[in-house]
Amino acid sequence: MRKCAGSGRSVSQELDAEQQDSGHKINDSPIIGVLAQGVYSPTPGKNAYIAASYVKYLESAGARVVPVMVNKTEEEYTILFKSINGILFPGGGASIFSSGYAKAAGIFYKLALEANSKGDYFPVWGTCLGFEQLTLLTSGKYLLSQTNTSGVALPLSFTKESKDSRMFKDFPEDLMASLANEPLTENSHQWSIATERFTGNEKLKKFYRILSTNTDGQTEFVSTVEGYDFPIYGTQWHPEKNAFEWTNAYIPHSTAAVRTTFYMALFFVNEARKSLHTFPSQKEEQNALIYNYQPTYTGKKSSFEQTYYFD
């Protein structure tokens, strides 16, 4: 684990301590970007989408959301980066190599590393496809293998490091016990990164702390990570679905499952509160917010109850 010079703490821990010790301003109006992705069969007005559950997920913990459109220039993404307080790479079916989703994710990942290295706090989250994208961006290699996890809820196998992790250290003990013993985390992915391949890659091993693993009965795979030195996080499972998606019977909706949604959302939104990025003007902020778009009910024909579509 890489430490800050002259201390025994990581960059992320050092930034947290500096904010606490110096009375650093906390942002009580965090705005988080959610990355869009192209639709399988584009039609006029429906060339890209964001599942509404990601928006509700972040809003439930006190954040506002800005859709991050695909196929913009690096300059446009850089300007937006300086205006928002974090970004979420959602699940989906986009290519993590050649899509507009992959290009945008790569730019924001690079900007986040540069900013955090300079003390400019900016958190990044990847869910499912977003998690897979992060492993590729960090390692520079495609390390995924196929698993039988395309529609199942699982308990988490926590590692020893999870107890003192930034992500889980403030979770109630009873909820941690439920997560470890009950199938509360929804999985809808066909590809995973095996624990052996993850730990066998030096870049991934040095960059991320593994917080949990899972298995499909044959392959043990990494399911939750956080950066050692950077506020970069990933889950192979979907914390947003428990409270906001009802299209599949295997999505858990128990009290413990819904509490999981809100504690995960609260953690990431609180990370975004440490970022002091702002839009140049109130008008530009208002024009960028997701409130300018209306979600469409898609639950009858999609795995999402509601979906935002974009040109």
UniProtKB/TrEMBL annotation:
Major localization class: secreted
Provide this UniProt record's keywords sorted from A to Z: Hydrolase, Secreted, Signal
Q: Name one GO biological process term.
A: tetrahydrofolylpolyglutamate metabolic process
Q: Name one GO molecular function term.
A: gamma-glutamyl-peptidase activity
Taking the record's annotation, the residue ranges forming a coiled coil are: none
Q: Which PROSITE patterns match?
A: GATASE_TYPE_1, PEPTIDASE_C26_GGH
Give the span(s) annotated as Disordered.
1-24
Q: What is any one of the record's Gene Ontology cellular component terms? A: vacuole
For this chain, the family text in UniProt reads: Belongs to the peptidase C26 family.
User: Which PANTHER family does the entry link to?
Assistant: GAMMA-GLUTAMYL HYDROLASE (PTHR11315:SF20), PROTEASE FAMILY C26 GAMMA-GLUTAMYL HYDROLASE (PTHR11315)
Protein name according to UniProt: folate gamma-glutamyl hydrolase
